[in-house]
Structure formats: structure tokens, C-alpha cells
Specification:
By secondary structure, the chain is an alpha/beta fold. It has 25 helices and 20 strands. The radius of gyration is 51 Å and the shape is elongated.
Length: 749
């Protein structure tokens, strides 16, 4: 390759990477999924089974609902409600009522009524025990399943019942879970952290010595030894949980209908809780209405004595004036003005009382309050106009008018307030509130959770998506070459594709099994995981592919400078030793006199494949400790000789650059038909670059789905920089995959 070729190869690699990042090969993606179909099936099935298990074992959740109607409220002084309704102040406010329904005051009523601070449940063996108990609620004989014998006899398996009338604990015991165990004969024992706290009997109050725990059980039905979990929670926490669980929403727009729902695991308790909450809401509403009426009555009872005093004083003043002025009568004009003034004064006083009532309920900025002040001001303006007319009357008539006005106004106000007080008393006695329960709390026949079908479907989909994502992500992270065409794209010729060797794989599995057995027996002898497949199973497809490589090499070496072949790679673990040893074997089987040299003086292990030792090998010869005849060993394969790596030297590269290695190459090239040199990876050490100057043909090995195209290109460029031409690539361990474009050899018999 020329320098221009190297640049071109680099550009091709970059172009290929860009295309791979920008294009999605749907066929390859489908192939990837097809290759991992069993993984996808297993993972999806596992998720489905988990979903089915959860759907069956999860605690059922029930929902109760109730319908509540809110009517327009009317309360306080008569006339105030009419004013509010006219101005929009008396319309129902569902948002306010929804907030009141979830208030602590209403929920506290339910907590006290149902003793919700105390929870008691049978002790179950996790979700499995709970599932069994739910399906054996009529187990009055308290029979247990076979599996129960494997566990503590304190677990409940269905049919157990207990009623706790009182469970009072000191603050330090709040939110602690006690265990109550049936001791038999209506006796029980209470434990906390496996320590006995007290013993008691059904229908008898039990106390600790210091009275910090009181417990009254009124009913206990279970087998002897069965446990119950007993707990008293903080009141604030119970109310907070109720607020979270209780849901209130409007039923349509401006209907005044509220829909209240409550969820929980205990079907009967869910219904009872919502029923008591709605009852408490209704009771609170009635009490609130009654309190408003009572406030109005109290206000009137304070004002009536004052009005009565003003009336008496006005009558005395009028009588005294008439006596002093010899019974002055009113003219027709004065009488007309008096009637108008009295009517205005009465209305003004009436609005003043209403103002006092509204001031207790609204702020001065409220529309009802603002409108009342406006009406009152209009009446005051009319009164001011009448005052001008009064000033035009004679002095005597003016004085009589004023005194008569005071009497008439106070008298009408007093009578009106007496009537109002009586009306309010009647209204208070018949207070029903503006809240009505349309539909009482009812629980649905079937639980709302878990939605079993949905859970199974979603778990199946999740398993499928997870497994598919795992396969695709793993494939995206794996940059190993699977298509031989990729080598062509970077200017390298594929000389052969060798299928994954099944014989080698079986041998490795067998050796791993033997190794595990030896580890258990205490022996630590290391076992080689390589086998000479060309000799053990000549019909293996991998061996057939190597024979095809042998044919290709025959023609490729016609123009080579010598008969020496170097097999190298970019990285370790791609199967160089396997290919080198089996290629040498098939060449020898074809009648060629072959020498196999293990030039990986650091980690070479070709000697194990021929059951030889690594001593007296290449490194000893290059150092000068032995002669060539001693280094060359015969193998069990006819016409195949072998030079092991020798002992690991400190400077292998320097030995390869010495004169003895050049002499070795010249000698073995003349003595053998073919010489195969197995070298270490080029990206790890420089040994292949040194050896490559002495050989006629260089082949690079790449492993299917493992070797990276970039590292292959870098290795090829490194050889090119050292003046060594890569004749071609051997694509090893190719597996038949739907996602790849494999070259396969087929058996022919």
C-alpha cells in the first residue's frame, strides 16, 4: 500500500462510521432480534409471569362512593338571605363544601366514630399468605395448607376474626406494631419486639402495671397460637391518610352535586368510613346553620331592651309635650310628612340591623355588604330631603313631628324585631342544613385494583420492550465486525471465512466441566482449552474452510519472495493459534513438509496443542543456548515439525532483530516446503513488524463479532508504515446470524 492508499483507507473508515451512525438497516435490526429470539422470549415470559404473580397476590382495593347535594343556604335575619340571593352572595359554593368535607373537623368525627386510630389485622405469610387467606374467609375450622407446616404456627390462613373495643397506649408506644397471640380458652398475650407486654382475657380490660397500655378485646376467633398485628397510629397521621384517600369532585357544572369516593383494602371498612364521613359532614353542616341562627337570636335579645327603652322614652316625651302645649294635633301636611319619615326611618333601622348581621359573615368588600351600604345611603339621602320640608313647618308642628316620629319608628322596629326573633327560634328548632345525602356510601362488588388484565398486558409489553432494548443497546455497543464486506471497504481482501468450530466448542465445554470437578477435589492443574481439530475431526466445517484457505494460499504465494507465512492479528483472543496449528496440519496432510513456529515468546501456547513443553524453543535458540536441531520437534502429524516459544525472555523484540533470527529464516525456508509463523498482536507489541520483513506472505486474523474494524484498519496502517503488505484477512469463528452477511462452508458427503 502507498501513503495515498493509507489516507484513502482512513477516509473510508470515517465514511463507514458516519453512514453507520446515520442509517438504520431495518433488515439487520430484524436479524438482531431474530438471533436473540430466545432471550427475548425468556425475558418477556419472565416479566409476564411476574405480572401474573403480582396481579394474583396484590391486595385488592375497593372503592365506595356517595352523592351529596348542596342547596342554596338561607340563614340569619330574614331579608338578609333575600339580599344575598339578589346580589349573588347566597349561591352555593361547591369548592368551599369540598374543602369542608375533607377538613380535619369532619374527618375527626369518622376517626372517633370508627376508632380508626387502631388497626388490627391477622398475621399473614407475606403476599402469598394474604392471597390464601382472602380465598378462605369462611375457614371457620381454621384449617391450614400443607405449606403452613414449614413456617411458624402464628400465621393466619383465613377465617380469623378479632374485635378491639379499646386500645390505649402511652405516647411512646404510638405507631409501634404489637403482636397479639391467641393463647387459647379466650386468653391472649400481647408482645412488642418479641417481648411479652401483657396477658388478658376476652371481654375483660387488660392493663400493664404502670397503666401505659390498656386493651379490651370483645371477640377473638382463631386457632390457638395465631397472631394478629395490632397498632395505634398518631391521630394526625390517620387524618392525613384519610385526606389523601378521600376524593371529592363536582358532578357537572353548577349542579351543586358532589361525588365523594373512598378507597381501601377492607371492603366493609371502606363503606363504613365513607358513610360516617358523609354523616359527619351533614351533622357539621346542621350545627353550623344552627349556630348562625343562634347568633342572630342572641343579637336580637341584646338589641330588644334598647329599642324598648327608646320607645318608652319617646312616648313619655310626646305625652309631656302635648300636656305642656294643650294637646297639639298634627295638620294633614305634617301627618303626611310623618308617615314618610317613619317609613324611611324604619327601613334605615332595618338595614342597620342587617348590616350588623352581615358584618359577622362578610368583609366590607363583599358585594352584599357594599350593596347594603349603598341602599342605606340612598335612604339617608331621601331622609335629608324630607328634613328640608320639615324645617318649613311651624315650630310647634316640627317638635310634635319629631316626637311622634320617634314613637312610631321605635314602635315599628320593636314589633319587627320581636317577630324576627320568633321566626328565628322556629327556624333554629327545624334546622336541617343545606346538605343532603342523595346516595349513601356503597362499595362496588368487584375491586378496582389491581387491574389484572392490564397488569399482565403491561408487564408483557415491558418485558418485550426491555429485552428488545437490551439486545439493540448491546448490539450498538458491540462494534465487532460481522460482515466480511467491511474489510473490503478498508482495502483488505478476505481470503477465507472460517465457521465457528463446533468440535472446539464441545471440547472446551468438556474441559470446563472437568476443571470444575478437579477444583472441587482440590486439584489445581491447569487444563488446555485447545484441540487440534484437523486431526480429531477432519470433517468439521471449520477444517473444510481451512482447506479452502490452503488452496487460496497456493496461488497467493506464487509471487511471494519466500515460502514463509506470518499469521498475526490486531488484538489477542481472535484464534491465531487455532488457525495456525490447523492450517499447518492440513498443509502437512496434503503432503507438504511444514514447520510451525510459535513466535509469541510472551504468551504463546501452541506447544499445548501438540502436548509438548515450551522449553528449548525459539527464545533459547535466539539467545544461543541451543542449536536449531534441538529447537525443532516432530509432532504426531506426519511431515509437520514445530518450534515452541521457549522460556519467556526479557527482550523478545531485540532477539528477533538479531542475526540468529535471520539465519533461522534462511535455513527453515530452504529445509521446508512451507513455514507458518504464529506472532503476537501487532497493536500490543512490535514483534510482528520485525518478523514481517522476513516473510513472503502476511495474513491478518479477525474474529467474528469481536474484532473492531477501526483496530483492523489501524493494524493494517501500522504494517504499511513498516513496509509490510497485508495479503489478506482470515475471518474466524463466523456464526450463522440473521443480522449478518456470513460466508459459510457447507459439508458435502
Amino acid at each position: 500500500m502507498t501513503e495515498q492508499t493509507i489516507k484513502t483507507n482512513k477516509q473510508k473508515v470515517r465514511v463507514n462510521d458516519d453512514n453507520a451512525a446515520q442509517e438504520i438497516d431495518l433488515t439487520r435490526l430484524f436479524g438482531l432480534l431474530l438471533d436473540k429470539k430466545w432471550l427475548i422470549v425468556v425475558v418477556t415470559t419472565a416479566f409476564t409471569l411476574i405480572g401474573i404473580g403480582y396481579a394474583l397476590l396484590a391486595t385488592p382495593i375497593y372503592k365506595a362512593d356517595a352523592l351529596i347535594q348542596i342547596e342554596e343556604s338561607s340563614g340569619g335575619l330574614p331579608g338578609v338571605a333575600d339580599l344575598e340571593s339578589m346580589l349573588g352572595g347566597g349561591e352555593q359554593n361547591p369548592e368551599t363544601e369540598m374543602a369542608l368535607l375533607k377538613s380535619r373537623k369532619v374527618l375527626s368525627y369518622a376517626v372517633d366514630k370508627l376508632n380508626l386510630e387502631v388497626t388490627v389485622t391477622p398475621k399473614h405469610l407475606g403476599s402469598l399468605g394474604g392471597y390464601y387467606a382472602r380465598h378462605h374467609t369462611n375457614n371457620t375450622k381454621f384449617n391450614t395448607p400443607v405449606i403452613a407446616s414449614l413456617f411458624d404456627n402464628s400465621y393466619a390462613w383465613g377465617g380469623e376474626k378479632i374485635k378491639v373495643a379499646n386500645f390505649t397506649v402511652a405516647p411512646q408506644y404510638l405507631n409501634n406494631t404489637f403482636e397479639l397471640v391467641n393463647s387459647g380458652n379466650n386468653n391472649y398475650t400481647l408482645y412488642l419486639d418479641q417481648q411479652q407486654i401483657l396477658t388478658g382475657q376476652v371481654n375483660q380490660l387488660a392493663k400493664t402495671k404502670n397503666n401505659d397500655i390498656e386493651l379490651l378485646i370483645t371477640s377473638l376467633k382463631s386457632a390457638t397460637g395465631t397472631g394478629f398485628l395490632l397498632k395505634r397510629d398518631y391521630r394526625e397521621d390517620v387524618i392525613a391518610d384519610l385526606q389523601k384517600t378521600l376524593s371529592v369532585s363536582g358532578q357537572g357544572k353548577d349542579t351543586g352535586i358532589l361525588n365523594a369516593t373512598f378507597e381501601g383494602a377492607n371492603k366493609q371498612l371502606v363503606q363504613n368510613t365513607l358513610a360516617v364521613i358523609t354523616q359527619g359532614f351533614l351533622l357539621q353542616n346542621v350545627q353550623r346553620m344552627s349556630a348562625e341562627l343562634q347568633n342572630s337570636i342572641d343579637f336580637l335579645e341584646k338589641e330588644l331592651p334598647k329599642i324598648k327603652g327608646d320607645l318608652d322614652a319617646a312616648e313619655v316625651a310626646l305625652n309631656q309635650y302635648r300636656l305642656a302645649n294643650e294637646s297639639v294635633d298634627l295638620s294633614l301636611e305634617t301627618q303626611s310628612i310623618l308617615e314618610q319619615v317613619v317609613a324611611l326611618e324604619t327601613r334605615i333601622h332595618d338595614l342597620s340591623f342587617k348590616e350588623a348581621e352581615i358584618a359577622q359573615r362578610f368583609t366590607k368588600e363583599h358585594p352584599s355588604y357594599v350593596s347594603l351600604i349603598k341602599k342605606k345611603q340612598e335612604l339617608l339621602n331621601q331622609k335629608q330631603q324630607l328634613t328640608v320640608s320639615v324645617k318649613n313647618l311651624p315650630e310647634t308642628q316640627q317638635q310634635v313631628l319629631r316626637l311622634a316620629r320617634d314613637v312610631e319608628v321605635n314602635q315599628q322596629i320593636y314589633i319587627a324585631l320581636l317577630n324576627t326573633k320568633q321566626e328565628l327560634r322556629v327556624a333554629r328548632a327545624g334546622t336541617v342544613g343545606n346538605i343532603h345525602i342523595v346516595d349513601t356510601a356503597v362499595v362496588g362488588r368487584a375491586p378496582i385494583k389491581p387491574k389484572k388484565a392490564l397488569i399482565v398486558v403491561m408487564s408483557t409489553l415491558l418485558g418485550g420492550m426491555f429485552s428488545v432494548a437490551f439486545v439493540l443497546v448491546r448490539a450498538a455497543l458491540n462494534r465487532g465486525v460481522t460482515n466480511p464486506q467491511d474489510f473490503e471497504d478498508v482495502g483488505l481482501t478476505v481470503y477465507a471465512t472460517i465457521p465457528d468450530c463446533e468440535t472446539q466448542n464441545k471440547f472446551v465445554r468438556k474441559l470446563k466441566l472437568k476443571s470444575q470437578i478437579k477444583k472441587k477435589s482440590g486439584r489445581k492443574k491447569k487444563i488446555s482449552q485447545e484441540v487440534l481439530v484437523a486431526q480429531e475431526n477432519p470433517s468439521d466445517l471449520a477444517v473444510e474452510a481451512i482447506r479452502s484457505l490452503r488452496t487460496s494460499l497456493h496461488f497467493a504465494m506464487l509471487e511471494a519472495k519466500n515460502n514463509i507465512i506470518m499469521i498475526t492479528s490486531a488484538s489477542p483472543g481472535v484464534g491465531k493459534s487455532f488457525v495456525s496449528s490447523n492450517l499447518a496440519t492440513v498443509l502437512a496432510q496434503a503432503g507438504k513438509k511444514v514447520l510451525l513456529v510459535d513466535a509469541d515468546m510472551r504468551k504463546g501456547y501452541l506447544h499445548k496443542m501438540f502436548t509438548k513443553k515450551s522449553d528449548n524453543g525459539l527464545s533459547e535458540y535466539l539467545v544461543g543456548n541451543i542449536e536449531l536441531d534441538t529447537a525443532i520437534e516432530q509432532t504426531d502429524v506426519e511431515k509437520l515439525d514445530f518450534i515452541s516459544r521457549g522460556k519467556v525472555p526479557s527482550t523478545p523484540s531485540e532477539l528477533l532483530m538479531g542475526k540468529r533470527f535471520t539465519d533461522l529464516i534462511n535455513t527453515i525456508s530452504n529445509d521446508y516446503d512451507l513455514v507458518i509463523i504464529d506472532t503476537p498482536p501487532i497493536l500490543a507489541v512490535t514483534d510482528p513488524a520485525i518478523i514481517g520483513h522476513h516473510v513472503g506472505t502476511t495474513l491478518m486474523l479477525a474474529r467474528f463479532n469481536q474484532s473492531n474494524l477501526k483496530e483492523i484498519a489501524v493494524a493494517a496502517n501500522r504494517f504499511e508504515l513498516n513496509g509490510i503488505e497485508i495479503k489478506g484477512v482470515i475471518f474466524n469463528a463466523v456464526k450463522k446470524k440473521s443480522s449478518s452477511y456470513g460466508y459459510y462452508n457447507y459439508e458435502y458427503k
